[in-house]
Specification:
Number of strands: 8
Radius of gyration: 17 Å
Bound molecules: cytidine-5'-diphosphate
Number of domains: 1
Order of helices and strands: EHEHHEEEHHEHEHHEH
Oligomer: single chain
Largest sheet: 5 strands, parallel
Number of helices: 9
Helix content: 40-55%
CATH superfamily: P-loop containing nucleotide triphosphate hydrolases
Shape: globular
């Protein structure tokens, strides 16, 4: 593997994807949002009424095609040819995604997509287990975390929908973090060799500077 891999793992709503996109642009690398794969798969399975309680057959997973591309500077996610960029960020998918992401067959499916992408280019990838499981030999590894209240306030501001209460967002991200970090397969945890940043009191530019500084130093 000659490609450079920059893994940005961490808790929900810590700004991983914002940072990963900025780093990808800065170094002119490709970017992959691993969470977007889990979200798109979740959307597909919810739409087909396929429960997360049972194992998902390969024949069903093979019908799911997720594409990530950049359009006018922003990431576009297509599910079987349909633009689902906004739909996968909705409350319903957010509430279900961690239940589906626990499943080994779904994780294997996503791992395959990510590893194929890395064969042809250097990548910045954000997620939960990129530096621990998907690319344990990643060139650079980061782990972002923050106070749940601050994360909920930031996400609330980002979705800009007054009908959604900040308290519900806080509950949703805490529940997800709990499922993600206690699951048996590929739990959310810092890799021993990852550089940890608490972003509670840092703005986007301050976090970005820390990341770039660390990359340039190594
Ligand atoms: O943007 P946010 O941090 O809220 O979440 P995301 O990165 O879109 O990920 C959504 C969910 O997908 C997470 O809560 C995890 O359950 C799952 N996920 C995962 O299990 N492994 C990854 N590498 C990325 C996401």
């Amino acid at each position: 593997m000659d490609s450079i891999i920059i893994a940005i793992d961490g808790q929900a709503s810590t700004g991983k994807s914002t940072q990963a996109k900025k780093i990808a642009k800065y170094f002119n690398y490709n970017y992959r949002d691993s969470g977007a794969y889990y979200r798109a798969i979740t959307l597909y399975l919810i739409q087909k009424n396929i429960s997360s309680d049972k194992s998902i057959p390969e024949t069903i997973l093979n019908k799911i095609h997720v594409e990530q591309s950049f359009e006018e500077g922003s990431l576009k996610i297509d599910l079987n040819g349909i633009d689902v960029t906004h739909k996968i960020r909705g409350f319903k998918v957010s509430s279900y995604v961690s239940k589906y992401a626990k499943k080994q067959e779904i994780r294997n499916f996503v791992y395959r997509q990510l590893r194929i992408s890395a064969e042809s280019s250097s990548l910045v990838i954000d997620g939960r287990d990129i530096g621990t499981v998907v690319f344990p030999k990643a060139t650079f590894k980061f782990f972002l975390l923050a106070d749940p209240k601050i994360r909920a306030q930031r996400r609330h501001k980002q979705i800009n929908d007054l009908s959604v209460k900040v308290e519900s967002i806080e509950k949703e991200i805490k529940t997800r973090d709990n499922i993600d970090s206690t699951r048996e397969i590929a739990p959310l945890k810092k890799a021993d060799d990852a550089f940890e940043i608490d972003v509670s009191c840092l703005n986007i530019e301050e976090v970005f500077e820390k990341l770039i500084q660390k990359i340039n130093l190594q």
